[in-house]
Design brief:
RAG1_ZnC2; sequence-specific DNA binding
């Protein structure tokens, strides 16, 4: 339908479709509070979900990609598809890691490969881009292995402390990466320089657990 709306022939695109997916993950609080009826449930719940944001193609011989699908209501529950609903507190890093581990592995496999489907009698090739824009700060910190939101290190993208950020809101650059956080976790775990807790903490700049999911902001 998207191809037709754009006046493109069904066989125009042989190089493949690019699908941008928004990931969302958030705690749902105490489950017993949410539903009211029935016995009180002590557990908390976390929902991991995704939304297909756009699909684009680059027609043969064309430089610019053409968007053939754009989600009109990206924040609607109707377009946001739950992938995993788990009884776990969003601050429980170990349990989150264990439950979402297979999802992360699947996503990594999708990023490094192409999905080929037969649509309308033609084999179509799809590649996927994931954007972690549906995470609040608390969730980003949890998944990237950072200290909780009360941390001295205020930013989940750079190494600024709250004091530095209050004096200078301009000269910040994005210095954090998933790989760097993994390296810092190893330093935190092994303490190769035999430093005190405060010195070690200053060296790793707020990394406190092993990060298990790279959340890419847009």
């Amino acid at each position: 339908e998207g191809l037709r709306e754009r006046g493109l022939d069904d066989s125009t695109c042989t190089s493949g479709f690019t699908v941008v997916i928004k990931e969302s993950c958030d705690g749902m609080g105490d489950v017993s509070e949410k539903h009211g009826s029935g016995p009180a449930v002590p557990e908390k719940a976390v929902r991991f979900s995704f939304t297909i944001m756009s699909i684009s193609i680059r027609a043969d011989g064309e430089e610019d990609a053409v968007t053939i699908f754009q989600e009109q209501k990206p924040n609607s529950e109707l377009s946001c598809r739950p992938l995993c609903l788990m009884f776990v507190d969003e601050s429980d890093h170990e349990t989150l890691t264990a439950i979402l581990g297979p999802v992360v592995a699947e996503r990594k496999a999708m990023l490094e490969s192409r999905l080929i489907l037969s649509v309308g009698g033609l084999l179509r090739s799809f590649r996927f881009l994931f954007r972690g824009t549906g995470y609040d700060e608390k969730m980003v910190r949890e998944m990237e292995g950072l200290e909780a939101s009360g941390s001295t290190y205020v930013c989940t993208l750079c190494d600024s402390t709250r004091a530095e950020a209050s004096h200078n809101m301009v000269l910040h650059s994005i210095t954090r990466s998933h790989g760097k956080n993994l390296e810092r976790y190893e330093i935190w775990r092994t303490n190769p320089f035999s430093e005190s807790a405060d010195e070690l903490r200053d060296r790793v700049k707020g990394v406190s657990a092993k990060p298990f999911m790279e959340t890419q902001p847009t």
